[in-house]
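Hi R.,

Here's the chain you asked about this morning:
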Amino acid sequence: IKGLRNLKDLGCEFAAIYGASPLYDFEGLPSYVKAAEEMGILTTIIVDGIGGDKDKEKIQQLYDVGLRSLTVSEDFVPYDKSSSLKSKAGLVLLDWFVKLPDIRDVEIITTVTNQNYKEVLKSVPTLLKKYGSKAWFSFDFLHLDRGHPGTKCKGKDSSLLLNRKETLSFLTSLLVLKQTGYNIHQSKTFLKECLKNLSMVTDFTWKCAPDEVFPSWLTIDCDGTVMCCDDFGTDRSWKIWNFDISDFDDFTTSHVNLGTSA
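And here is the predicted structure, written out as tokens:
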């Protein structure tokens, strides 16, 4: 909570709480969400729904202390039995949560692969219509471990990666959905920039944001360590409770020197 206060002083207005699922280690989470919301940092929690009714009970506790946003992970095309159970359970939670009073928003997120991108484009309009104007869709392209210390991107199997043609098809269709009024989280600017330079996706040279506003977001690990994005190794000396504006300059320098593209 001391770290939250520091984030607020740095101008933070939003925090997404994720894990795997933050519900797996629930102790203290209601106090954390309550503190964030009361100091004006809007929160969402990203869950997989596998816990079923137990997850619902925990989310109800978070709702009771101020949580007004829920994000669920959806695979659209299951990778295995566990993936299938997770995707179905997440939408069941969303069905319940979206009916609670005073909900701010809900979001469905997915990792886009060459196996699911067509189903994503087919299903997203239906889901967004079902959940109404407060529902959003967001995505991340599958990306591999690029050898960075501390990376959370594991594995080197490229069989699920989109090629240039598939990437072009996905981005073009998603931009059309965005322009026709569907709540696609990524901005038109981002989608158009990716379309102008498909290698940002296919060759893994994308960035979180333009240099002048880098970094656009930070990951705070469970021990308080501050990292840029979620694919960046540090010596774990930057802690959120004493993080300072000047540290952003160090992050930018480290980012450039390592040749990463987050």
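One quick note: The CA atoms of residues 81 and 145 lie 24 Å apart.

Cheers,
M.
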